[in-house]
Amino acid sequence: xxxxxxxxxxxxxxxxxxxxxxxxxxxxxxxxxxxxxxxxxxxxxxxxxxxxxxxxxxxxxxxxxxxxxxxxxxxxxxxxxxxxxxxxxxxxxxxxxxxxxxxxxxxxxxxxxxxxxxxxxxxxxxxxxxxxxxxxxxxxxxxxxxxxxxxxxxxxxxxxxxxxxxxxxxxxxxxxxxxxxxxxxxxxxxxxxxxxxxxxxxxxxxxxxxxxxxxxxxxxxxxxxxxxxxxxxxxxxxxxxxxxxxxxxxxxxxxxxxxxxxxxxxxxxxxxxxxxxxxxxxxxxxxxxxxxxxxxxxxxxxxxxxxxxxxxxxxxxxxxxxxxxxxxxxxxxxxxxxxxxxxxxxxxxxxxxxxxxxx
Length: 359
Known about the structure:
The protein has helices spanning 33-41, 102-106, 114-122, 145-148, 150-160, 178-186, 201-207, 214-226, 247-256, 273-284, 289-299, 311-314, 317-333; strands at 50-53, 60-62, 72-74, 77-78, 107-110, 132-134, 165-169, 190-195, 231-238, 261-266. By secondary structure, the chain is an alpha/beta fold. It has a single domain, classed as pyruvate-formate lyase- activating enzyme (Alpha-Beta Horseshoe). The strands form two sheets. It has a seven-stranded mixed β-sheet. Strands 1-5-4 form a three-stranded mixed β-sheet. Helix 9 links the parallel strand 9 (231-238) and strand 10. Helix 3 (114-122) packs parallel to helix 5 and helix 9 (247-256) runs parallel beside helix 13.
């Protein structure tokens, strides 16, 4: 009889199996000796986080996706210690011969050269200004930002040349940078989306084990709004039969805190995320695992995941339509009708080069 996956203390994934998607061996990656120890002791010990310096050649990532509202982003980190089990960025660790499971949330990469690379790219004569998105792949305010401060340094570059920026985060650590974001927002250059998946602390701790408490996120919305920064609540993802019943309450709380808009997205399970999510369900919600996956497949056209443009973010079928209707009604009721983020680009001034700084 197969054994139920063992939950890791303060971690999202229950396994560290490599994917084999790129021809790599389907073996347990470093750290899954914990499985053997768990069989003896009955519980897995905590797993430490390590950070490796990455030296990319460029820092602005471009995309041409027709269903994404921005065409460029900056990610100061690779991997994310928040450990959200549903994170669609997990498969990117497979490119580095690492597991999208525990490796993704414990073996992180930091890019300390990001601010200098950003300054150099913005200074190019060919650069055309458009909002840069921070937090599109992994959270720019995850715990290691406290010490590395790479996100802060990137914001300083953007603020110095009046470049527009949007931020998506689960962390109230964003409040540390109010001194930058407040003046930028006053010029029409900044907006923040705070992700709130659940207001239930027990559910949140299970789904997003190292992300801040839900009340801290609502408080962050309140503080950002009070500082004049347009703040949106992102209910992403909605997990059927686990968090979907909280939609209206999340919107109500966010509106009371001063949010101006609300977005949602049904849970996505691309590539290695699907088996990781299934194992997580078996470990934490064995009583409803089958129901959850049945509803996800209804939203995703009979599959665990729908990779197609537009429908991948909206879902399809009656259940997805019901979610859209509920969000629309709740947002209208509480005045969160601002669905578009509009930032100015006409204020942009390229950063001065070495010669310009002499005068």
